[in-house]
Design goal:
With 185 residues, the protein is of the alpha+beta class. The chain has helices at residues 8-30, 35-49, 56-75, 79-82, 156-173, 176-184; strands at 90-93, 96-99, 103-105, 108-110, 117-119, 127-131, 139-143, 149-152. It has 6 helices and 8 strands.
């Protein structure tokens, strides 16, 4: 129901009714019609919108069925039918455990901008980038919890892109299935 009032059609309709309710009494006053009479005309107009030949029970049942079907579709695990690799959300690549989620895109599915995320193999903490004393020679990924370290020779952004390409390669080649199977056993 939260998203219902965010829909552009609903927002536009509510805005038009609010505008109608504000402007009509002003115009009616300027045209020498009483404000009370103009508000009564607005009320009659709103009631005339709902005065059609469909029974109220049909409208209520339709709304209830719409809500039920929408919840069933939302709760169904439809994603696996269209995205068979949706369970492939983590893997160990280059000695680091990487985690990500898939998001729909115009060309199928992709990874979010700052994904995948490096995590520690030991304690499952996040790995953060720290520049070594001699920056030109690379970066250091460090676990803040257990002090696990992994030296990388390129910038973290470029390294993450390299890992993204490897993930997409594993999906295209089908190698991701063995990773998911090993994790499920």
């Amino acid at each position: 129901m939260k998203n219902f009032f965010k829909h552009p059609i609903i927002v536009g309709s509510i805005t038009s009714f609010i505008t109608l309710g504000i402007i009509t009494p002003i115009v009616a006053y300027l045209k020498s019609v009483s404000i009370l009479n103009s508000l009564f005309l607005i009320w009659e107009f709103i009631l005339s919108i709902f005065n059609f030949k469909i029974s109220l029970w049909i409208i209520i049942v339709s709304i209830i069925l719409f809500v039920i079907v929408r919840k069933l579709i939302k709760n169904a695990d439809i994603e696996k039918d269209f995205n068979p690799f949706s369970t492939y959300k983590e893997d160990i690549i280059d000695g680091i455990k990487w985690e990500w989620k898939w998001i729909p895109s115009s060309s199928g599915y992709t990874l979010p901008k700052n994904s995948p995320v490096p995590t520690c193999n030991n304690c499952k903490g996040f790995l953060v980038s720290e520049h070594e004393r001699y920056y030109p020679y690379g970066n250091l990924l460090v676990c803040e919890h257990c002090s696990f370290e992994k030296k990388i020779t390129i910038d973290l952004k470029d390294y993450r892109e390299k890992i993204r390409r490897e993930i997409f390669r594993r999906v295209r080649s089908g190698e991701w299935k063995s990773s998911v199977d090993a994790r499920n056993q």
